[in-house]
Amino acid sequence: MEIIIKNSDHRPLYEQIAAQIRAKILNGELKPGEALPSIRNLARDLKLSVITTKRAYDELETAGLIDSIAGKGCFVTNTARNQEILIEQRNQELERRVSEIVRLAKDNGVEYETLSDILRICWDEL
Q: Which of 12, 36, 68, 111 is most buried, most CB within 10 Å of its CB?
């Protein structure tokens, strides 16, 4: 599993790890029931502290996205509740990004109709 740590990112390292794993779960790259790298192996691969990777996994477990099974490892949660969580998190991320775009449009005097047209064009192109 590829995780990219950026020193220029303002977020703590554990948040960068958790965000990338969350995104891989959201986009289906990581499937329900799939094993994640062990905390120690991920720490070694990323050249980070085990504490940092453990904190990322703890955050994902608290969010209900992964399950930790003693002696077995960590796995993507395999429940219907997981799907609800994923949909809600995806929608929150979408809302955050759209809000940024709306703010940019308003700050630059773009009318709602123009922004709506831009959105429609982009939607149709993909």
A: 36
* C-beta atoms surrounding 47 within 10 Å: 7
Alpha helices in the chain (DSSP H): 13-26, 39-46, 50-62, 80-107, 112-125
Residue with tokens 């192996």: 41
CA distance 49 to 53: 7
Q: What angle do CA 62, 40, 30 make, to 5 degrees?
A: 55
Instruction: Report CA torsion sign: 28, 33, 34, 35.
Output: positive
- Write out pLDDT tens, residues 34-50: 999 999 999 999 999 99
